[in-house]
Amino acid sequence: MNIGKYTFNEFKELAQCFHGYPAPGLLIGGYMVEAVKRKLPEGTLFEALIETTKCLPDAVQLLTLCSTGNAWMRVTNLGRYAVSLYDKYSFDGWRAAIDLEKLEKFPEVKAWFLKQKTKQEQDTDKLFVEIEKAGDQYLTITPVHIRPQYLKKKTSSAIVACPICREAYPKNDGAICRGCQGENPYRSVIQSPGYREPSPGLEYVPIEKAIGETALHDMTRIIPGKSKGPEFKAGQKIEAGDLCRLQQMGRSSIYVEGRTNVDTNKIKNL
Ligand SMILES: [Zn+2]
Questions:
Q1: What is the Å distance from ligand 1's center to 161 Cα?
Q2: What is the 231 CA–ligand 1 centroid distance (Å)?
Q3: Quick one: 67 and 179 in the same domain?
């Protein structure tokens, strides 16, 4: 069965170029995307919502104009292999998922999908033949309506230079950028060409020395599934009783409003 305007082999080649190899999940994803696309009336301006980070986002990018870069594609990792395409104005659309009962008729796909075989045990050619033959037969397609509040776009804010890393960031994120607030995924501090010594108004101190000092920026505690309001607010005085909570948030040092004699070496050696 073809995948939209492509034959199975053409799509396989496309997958190879885009994804690095023709992943079975991407080929199956191709059928899923096309099955929901067909349900939308011709000319519908649609967006995509994907419930897994694996393979499916690439199928959407190959077969539609939606991508994370243009914000017409959202990936919310619920761990389910499902994709919805919906009208961007009415939020009505269709969702494709894999139906485990229907999958019984397709043993190769089932074994792959449920990880019942090791890679060595898997007969990839047989699997590809079955994926092509099955097409969209084991999919369940259901109408959906996306909650509008879920799709709210972030309001844009002024862009300013971060006083620590000197890179541009949205001012709404706080007095310094989120990277410098502690969400930095890198082991060392990024010193971009514009990097400057932090201004004397900032000080980075171990939390035990922060007692009695004033927090420079909001600090958020992320608890999965719960709202993530700031646990500490900019301007809040740090008290002895706060140390435990800061530790639980993974912070051993924090930025505080500067005192007169600032040792900027401390900041350099973050
Ligand atoms: Zn920064």
A1: 8
A2: 20
A3: no
Per-residue pLDDT 10s for the chain (270 aa) are 999 999 999 999 999 999 999 999 999 999 999 999 999 999 999 999 999 999 999 999 999 999 988 889 999 899 999 999 999 999 999 999 999 999 999 999 999 999 999 888 989 999 999 999 999 999 999 999 998 877 766 667 899 998 888 899 999 888 888 888 877 777 666 566 655 555 556 677 888 888 888 887 778 776 666 656 678 888 888 888 888 888 878 787 788 876 534 444 444 433
Give the residue numbers spanning the domain of 81.
8-151
Q: Does 225 lie in the same domain as 123?
A: no
- What's the gap in Å between 199 CA and the centre of ligand 1? 12
* Cα–Cα dist 134/108, whole Å: 11
Q: Which residues contact 40 (CB under 8 A, 6 or more apart)?
A: 46, 85, 87, 93, 94
- At 249, which CATH number? 3.90.105.10
Select from 151, 182, 215 the last residue of a domain: 151
Helix (H) or strand (E) holding 93: strand 92-98
